[in-house]
Amino acid sequence: MATRSRQRFFCILVSATVAFFLVTLKVTSRPAVRQLPANSTSNYSGFLVDTVGCKIPNINPYDELIKRFVWHGTRVHCKGKPAITYEDGLWIRINRTRVKKYYRNDLKYCAYEPLQRPVNGSDDRIDYTNKKILFYNDTIVKAEFMRVYCYSRSEGVIYVNFHAFILPKPEIERRYRRNFKRYNKTFDLKANLNVLMFGVDSVSRLNMIRQMPRTRELLFSELGAVEMLGYNKVADNTYVNIVPMTVGKFVEELPWNETMADVPFDEYGFVWKNFSKYGYRTLYAEDAPKIAIFNYLKAGFHVPPADYYLRPFSLAIEKHKTLWNQNNNCFSNSLETNLVLDYVHRFIKSSQGKPFFAFTFITRLTHDDVNRVGAADVPHHDFLSKLKEEGHLENTVLIYYSDHGIRFGDVRGTYIGKLEERLPFMFIAFPKWFREKYPKLMDRLTTNSKRLTTPFDIYETLVDILHFNRSVGKSDKQLTDRGISLFNNISPARTCELASILTHWCTCQLQERVNGTDPIIVKAATFVVKVLNSKTANHRTLCSKLKLGEIWEAWRMVPNEEVLRFRKSLNDVINRQVFYGERAKAIVDYQITLTTVPGQGLFEVTVRHVELENQFTVMGEVSRINLYGQQSACTKDIHLKKYCHCVAGG
Question: For the packed helices 377-389 and 213-221, what is the interaxial angle rounded to 10 degrees?
Answer without folding.
Answer: 30
